[in-house]
Amino acid sequence: MDPGFIAQYLLNGIVLGVIYAMVAVGFTLFFGVLDVIKFSHGDVVMAGAFTALATYAGLELLGVSDGMFAAIVITVMGIAAMAILGALLAKLLILPLRNAPPLNTLLITLMFGLALREAVRLFYPNGSNPKPFPQLLPDAAMTIGNLELRLDSVLLIVLGLGAIVAVHLLIQRTRIGLAIRAVAQDPETARLMGINFERVVLMTFALGSALAALAGITNGLYYSEVNFGMGLLLGVIGFSAAVVGGLGSLYGAIIGGFLFAALQTIGAVWFSVPAYKDVFAFACIIVLMAWKPTGLLADKSAERV
Amino acid sequence: MELVIENIVSGYDQADVLSGVSLHVPEGQITCLLGSNGAGKTTLIRAILGLTPARSGRIRFGAADITHEPTHRIAALGVTCIPEGRRVFPRMSVMENLRVGSYTDTNRQAVEKRLEEVFAIFPRLHERAEQLAGTMSGGEQAMLSIGRGLMSGPKLLIVDEPSLGLSPLFVKENFKVIQRINELGVTVLLVEQNVRQTLAIAHRGYVLSQGRIVAQGDAAQLRDNEEVRAAYFGS
pTM above 0.90? Predict the structure, then answer.
């Protein structure tokens, strides 16, 4: 096969890997601090993208024409809105259910995700149809053989990887990261050390949801389209990536995200019908889970959040 | 600072474990709380720390009423617990564990100074600063747990069953360290089953049995007390 094509697939796979890793890190953070699985996470990805889209509509009304400036504003708005939504969700739905069976949390977040999805479909103007997402990043391209290297793809990769590295540093190097890890490892002892448990949980949910928003916006900018159901597949993929990597492990989630993107890319190259790529990727995940039921990194020595 | 507990009733769900316990931990002393398994020692500590708030009664630390304060705020006031079973953070390094210990103190210089003090008491922790706490031996984890407690600059140190699960040599070492910490001016509430060694270092003590204080007095009195003898010394 032509090396240019392979490079093109590789580039596409890296963008997907970054998006999946950002979603998966959220799942792993939530599971780390509270041992809960939040099934509305994919819909938060979608809501982040739609918040950005709505912000762009507002900017258009104001007559803002600079693409880069608009991109920054809509990204910041999407991230901020989802961070607040994530914290509210934790405060109002998840923390009150802390002493209930985990199944209840799962169910209530599943319901919330559904409500969010349907609300966007019903109340966003013409929300049931796919919406074009504005092309805001500079789309200068460089052509090397069959590879078309576009500046906006490169920017998205740099931005996404930067966000993942930033979260990693936040968890490993800062005071709040230390508090998050303490709560993840032993919530009661963490409280004895003077750590405000509830605040740490809210911050963790804000952080994970902000990353989800960034994933949604990246997705929109890359494919130039969003729709109200996009969170469904992204949520399942992010969850699979986190579980395959070992739920609770930050590295595991990142590896899982890139692994899933790699499998999809291999599937896309291998089969001439592109729709098979998801079948192939999920089938591989099933085999992986059967082989390593607790995930790739989730043994005792693994660094959990 | 002194801790005053007045008529505490506490327990889980419907059952009362403590039925009206009063206790006084004077500033600067080692006060011990003795009692066998199931006497209510852990419940009393959980009430002080706000982990299982008391149903009625009052807990005062210095001038502050902490009966219904949340745990992290009680900790910020200077009440530090060295929990039963050590409870170090297993997937953090020794150094990170100590940093969590000083979480409430944002004064960098004070924290660095305390870190040196802790390393002076436990040179082993200095040698192992980068090791993951979960991979250390039980004795080393006990040192780390005490060191982590000291990192907050405690005004009251509650030590819960420090001898549990440790070899006799370590137990002896641990009690010496607790005495030394007290001599540095830290008020200590020592909760133990190990009566002889506890009364050897404590100034005063209480004996808890079935949710009530059944004996109290200074350490020498308690050593001679018939009930304590009957309950713990087997004679």
Answer: yes
What are the residue boundaries of the structural domains of chain A, listed by start? 24-227
Element (H, E) at A17: helix A3-34
Q: What pLDDT digit, counting tens, does each position of A59-84 carry?
A: 999 988 888 999 999 999 999 999 99
Interface of B with A in 28-67 (CB under 8 A): 49, 51
**B72 has a chain A CB within 8 A of its CB:** yes
Interface residue B93 vs chain A (CB under 8 A): no
Question: pLDDT tens, A121-176?
Answer: 999 999 999 999 999 998 888 888 778 888 999 999 999 999 999 999 999 999 99
Torsion on CA atoms B41, B47, B50, B51, rounded to nearest 10: 50
In degrees and rounded to multiples of 5, residue B200 shows phi and psi of -70, -30
The confidence score (pLDDT) of residue A304 equals 58
- Locate all alpha helices (DSSP H) within chain B, ordered by sequence: 41-49, 71-76, 94-101, 108-121, 123-127, 138-150, 168-183, 195-201, 219-224, 226-228
Question: Cβ of A193 and B101 within 8 Å?
Answer: yes
Question: Looking at the complex, does the CB of residue A185 fall below 8 Å from at least one CB of chain B?
Answer: yes
Give the Cβ contact number of residue B71 at 10 Å.
24
CATH code given to domain B1-78+192-235: 3.40.50.300
DSSP assignment of A177-191 = HHHHHHHHH-HHHHH
Question: Would you kindly state where each structural domain of chain B is located, as residue ranges?
Answer: 1-78+192-235
CB contact under 8 A, B87 and A304: no
* 3-class DSSP assignment, residue B4: strand
Q: Give the DSSP letter of residue B112.
A: H
- Which pair of structure tokens corresponds to residue B119? 């390393």
Say yes or no to pLDDT of A223 above 90.
Answer: yes
The pLDDT-based confidence of A298 (bands split at 50, 70, 90) is low
Cβ proximity of A223 and A38 under 8 Å: no
Rounded mean pLDDT of A233-245? 95
Cα–Cα distance measured from residue A267 to residue B30, given in angstroms and rounded to the nearest whole number: 69
* A32: Cβ contacts below 8 Å, ≥ 6 apart: A180, A184, A204, A248, A250, A304, A305
